[in-house]
Amino acid sequence: MEHQTILSMIGLGSKENLYWISILLFAGTYAMIILEKFFHRVPAALLGGTFAIFLGVVTPEGAWEAIDHNTMFLLIGMMIIVSVLIESGFFSILSSMALRITKGDPFKIVLTFTLLTAVLSAFLDNVTTVLFMVPILISITSKLKLKPVPYVIATVLASNIGGTATLIGDPPNIIIGSLGGFTFMDFIVNLAPIVVVTHIIGTIIFIGMMKYQGHLEVKLTDEKELKRIIEEQKIEYDVILMRKGLIVFGITVILFFLHHILHLEAGTIALFMASVLMIWAKESPEKIFERVEWTTLMFFLGLFIVIGGLEHSGVFEDAAHLVAGVITDPMSGILILGGLSAFISGIVDNIPFTMAMSYVLIDLAKTAAFDVEPLWWALALGACLGGNLTIIGASANVVAAGLSEREGYPIKFFDFVKQGTPVTVVTVIVALGLLWLKYAIFGI
Amino acid sequence: MPVNKIIFLQKEKINFNNLKVVSFITKKLQKKLILLLIDIPENQKEKVKDQLFSLDIEFEIRNQIEFSEAKDEIKTEKPDLLIVTREKISPFEHIFKITSSERFIKGFENIDIILLQEDCDKLEKILINVDKETSTLYYIKSAYIFAKKLGVDFHMITSFYEVFYENRLRKTHPDEEARQLVAQLFKEHLDIVKEKIAKALEGEKVELIVAKGDPKKEVPYYARKHHYNLLIINEDIEEKESYIENSEMSVGIFKDEEGA
Questions:
Q1: What is the per-residue pLDDT across A318-371, written as a single tens digit (0 to 9) for each?
Q2: Which of A37, A160, B70, B155 has the maximal Cβ count within 10 Å?
Q3: Which residues in chain A touch residue B225, judged by CB atoms under 8 angstroms apart?
Q4: Angle at A288 between CA A283 and CA A294, to 5 degrees
Q5: A236/B167 touch (CB, cutoff 8 Å), yes or no
């Protein structure tokens, strides 16, 4: 039986009409996401998604199929595991240790906290890492009579760089991993070494800038006061819960490494291990779910449906033909796609962009005369590192700015640009350059 | 707490700071001290003797036993108080390691135990946890008498897990109603704890600190934050191991019933 839709009832149900309506819906949703001053991005994405079903651009069954379950399961699973680790006080202990190691030295603080943030971000969602690190950093730097803003910005930059390294580090990577069919190991092999070099170079740049701007000078010289501040970092924690959380987290990461051998998707592993942890930890699910970012999950849900509409209408097929006209070989593609991704991700949300580009690459792979794998990695590097370009470039930046403002240290748009833009430009050039070099030397 | 014998277990080396505290407890409670010394060098044993003689403490040294027999020796001896040095490790290390003293005390029943933090050399502030569900009148009284006899500053504490009830009740009740119910539960919690304390202490006054949060985290946190030297919990408290592992200090685990 023919599926009756509102559009077909009013005579607009032709394939061509659906094609253009799906583009309009996507553009409209994207516009609402960009205009975040007026619309919250989550209802905007959900409205776009449900409107697509409402109009018949995509059937309810098609909408369900359009949702990438692996991405959703991976996000939910990891958010649950991280929620338990936060509840246990693990991150508080890590930061307290970091403060003891740095002994209040501004240079060591920025070095240690950015490294810690980058490493944590590689395995946790950037927003979670920033949510956790920024308040601690503000508290420490203000007590040490240092200006917190440059330190907060440095931490955010490190978070976006570190998150680029793994499949689970940043939402664009989760999307790329799932839609591109890449394993956890693929990310480690292809991105992690580049990210390590990028992080080192990024660190040199932002530390250099902070030194030049006088932000690394010791302001608190009273030894006794310094010792008191370091000792004062008493925190609440639950060692047994931490132990359980870390064991499950460790096994999850091991299983991620093996997921292609086990023929299991990363999302299945994450959700399975999260369920094991909830049973084992005996924590109330309500408390754990409080920390799960439902808004992010809903955002993904809506976007998948909107993008499913585009896919269903054949828009990506045409876009792939268009891209194939511009990118004629993977080597130039690395630079074009990577650069474009970085620029766009720097000014708008990188999640819908990555999702749309992923579908373009899937279709491009069907028609292109070359292997598109390097383009996936260029997309990952551009989308993740580009987030450092402006304060609205990544969710982690926005969250950090909000936290900093709440504590009385607002981050102005140009303060961020001053520190973020040079770091982004250099890190993107270095990262794409290294990726290009890798394929130039070892071949595709 | 009618303490007749106190056993202090030391393995491989004597912690003289801890010995100072043990001597203080023994002296204040006026009881006999049995030192179970395992693999301790002779010169250290002599030093122990000198220290205890000078303090005029009645003591006995037993040093012919193996560590594997120590548990049986203690169980046979049935001391009223067993003191074991607790290795000092950071919370981070603690995630990956359960200390030997924490492992050692498992399996003991009906003995008051103190895990004395390594190098702890004074007992000036004691915090006694009172759990609404499991703390018995006997426990409250014995912990109180112990602290009172030592003549140190001490307080009782109870923690109400407000968020837990709030989360549960908000699912089934409107916000305002849930808040009222939580307030009612809080009052009930306090009433029960205060009544237990009043009954146990038969009119003696003691300061009760009321904390809000997950007790196994909140109580050790409060104790650390306010520089208590010893946190006392009852033997049958739920998630006892969490209280112990979450405390970076000396912990007393006192029995809930009299005698074995």
A1: 887 788 788 888 899 999 999 999 998 887 778 888 888 999 999 889 888 889
A2: A160
A3: 234
A4: 160
A5: no
